Amino acid sequence: MATETKPATTQPFDAQGDIPDTVRVASAMEGFVSEFGPRASSYMNACVRCGLCAEACHFHLATGEAKYTPIHKIKPFEAAYSQTQGPFSWIRRAFGIAPVVSIAELQEWEELIFDSCTLCGRCTLACPMGIDIAELVKEARHGMFQAGLLPDRLAQITGNAKTKHSPFGEPADFVKAIHAIEAEFSITLPLDKPKADLLLTLAPGDLDEHHNSVAGLARILDSLNIDWTLSSVAFEATNFGYLSGDTELQGELTCRLIDKAREIGATTILLPECGHAWGALRWEAARWYGSPIGDIRILHTLELLAERIQMGEIRLRPVGETATFHDPCQQIRRGGLGWASRVVLKALGMELRELENAEETSFCCGGGGGVLANTRAAPLRLQAFEIKRKEVEATGAEHFITSCGQCRLQFDRSRKETNWDKEVESLLELVAVNMIID
Asked: What is the pLDDT of residues 107-119, one digit of tens each?
């Protein structure tokens, strides 16, 4: 295989010119090694090569290709471990034996961990040894980022998030979009209030394509008499540092939201219908902030809806039709919110027809983990989509619903590309439309 150097596509290096292969390999290995701790080391030693993770992966099942076996995707990570902390690493170090990883191999692995992994965690659930393979892949992306090995479009979007405040654009672009939504729906979206109890955050998909979700969420918050605001300098929920492996950016985006919430006295940061926004902030905030943030609650929109329905503060007109629900991976399998979606669907009076694989065992939409932002991965993404399409069709349900904006984008693009006539609906928008307001 050729070992021609691929141009750098992101910003870990000051210059964007050609970087020697040896430097790239060393940078990747350094990034891998920086992630090693007791947990990662125990994972490296625990795998028994049983292959159960392969049967859990939608990419492997959709293609039948062995290279998409989840544990196979962390081979360079494993090589770095063997060199530095494995049982025989002292021999390798003593004789100066370097990890047997070439730039060509790293380029192959870059495609695997960015194109064929959505960080969905279904393989983690299947592993009899309890190895969090999805977490290892995410950590391996840190090394790839350090070596400048990212898919081109994902690198571009991550660069926008770093230099322009958000993948959506500058704060001025955000303000313009908010005013456009206000005019479109004849509503008021409070912006930059100096004091508020709740800081609302959004995802680029909300600002680009899901204006109904923004308007619906505003109406729900107003109906609950919640004192809330948007911020023109802290509005970005989707953390592309988390998705790309740029840990510096991940920390920056995380701390920006927490700092703004504390500045305005907010006790709650509300996240939109976005799975990775929930995972990045809810579970990793303290790691990047450097201290506990117990005074601020990180709340997903789905949680808000379910809790206020249970409290009797949100009352809904019954839809009275059949529905099936796609469980977003980060919210349900890795976030534990399966109960919340069922509370909302029940309140809507819908007859729920569960997919063959539902809640914790649900298959990923195929576009998470930055895969939807990766043009090169489009053919593979469409193959994974077929698994979900067949499951949805088997239910015969009238409504196909989810609670993740990224999943909706994946389904919308895929159904257009495959001429599938089934529309995917937002759980949030259904609540907003059917809410009874005295």
From this structure: 888 899 999 999 9
